Amino acid sequence: MVSQGSITAMIVQVILGVLIPVALVLYFRRTTGISYRAIGVGILVFFIFSQVLEKGMHYYVLSFNKSTAAWFKNPWLFALYGGLAAGIFEEVGRWLGFTFLLKNRQQRKDGISLGIGHGGIEAFLIAIVSGVQGIIFATMINAGKLEESLGAGLPPEQIAELKNRLIQTAQSEFWLGGLERIPAIFMQIAFSLIVLYGVRNRKVVYLLYAILLHALVDFAPAMYQAHFLSLWVAEAVIWILGIGAIVVIVKSKKWFA
User: Fold this and answer.
1) Residue 42 to residues 80, 113, 162, 252, 256: CA-CA distances in angstroms?
2) Per the domain annotation, does 257 fall within a domain?
3) Residue 21, CB half-sphere, CA atoms under 13 Å: how many?
4) Structural domain boundaries enclosing 248
5) What share of residues in the chain are helix, strand, coil (percent, to 5)?
6) Is 256 helix (H, G, I), strand (E, B) or coil?
7) Exposed e or buried b for every residue in 118-135, given b needs 16+ CB within 10 A?
8) Global model pTM greater than 0.85
9) What does the pLDDT look like over 96-128, one tens digit per residue?
10) Using CA atoms, how far apart are residues 163 and 142, in angstroms rounded to an integer?
11) Quick one: DSSP state of residue 130?
């Protein structure tokens, strides 16, 4: 049986995935006059550079190409690769978005808007794909209908693995996964502002700063995925960097004054 606490945490994850982006849009709409065009560009950048290009490279490097797949079984190389890949694809995508799609919209509010679009759609998709799917599977397990419902589409060993993962995962991990969306979206806004500052002032070095910071953010979760770092340490790093992102967002008022 999947505990009720775990199911509750999944429900909270779904709520946060929808509520946080909406709350940020409403808040910044009132305080800065948010740009819906920039939000759309942020969503577009996320899909093209993260979901298509980056994931396409991951498939080739980590699965299709057996040589590189063997290299990245090393947890340090895996974490370094994962962090740099996310940083390069997503931050270059932001730079191109600001340069070509928002060349007449490069105020601070546009940087915030693109960050909300990018981080908001990410939070929403994680909530829907991970949260809703988890709730459905957990309900099936508790009703004794998982094998019956998925038997035609998945082999028995995959169903057993899914079932064991949901039952054996500690309740705290579900809570941490849901709450992680809070610092994550603030970091996406901060990255967008750093990149925009570089675009406005024609200083490519700020793109490099954003790439390295993004790589640092993704390094800890990658080390956790490689079973080299505990979840609590990885989440602590994310929250510390999330607080730093809020400082950057506040400080950015001076950058664009």
Assistant:
1) 25, 8, 33, 19, 20
2) no
3) 25
4) 4-252
5) 85, 0, 15
6) coil
7) bbbbbbbebbeebbeebb
8) yes
9) 999 999 999 999 999 999 999 999 999 999 888
10) 10
11) I
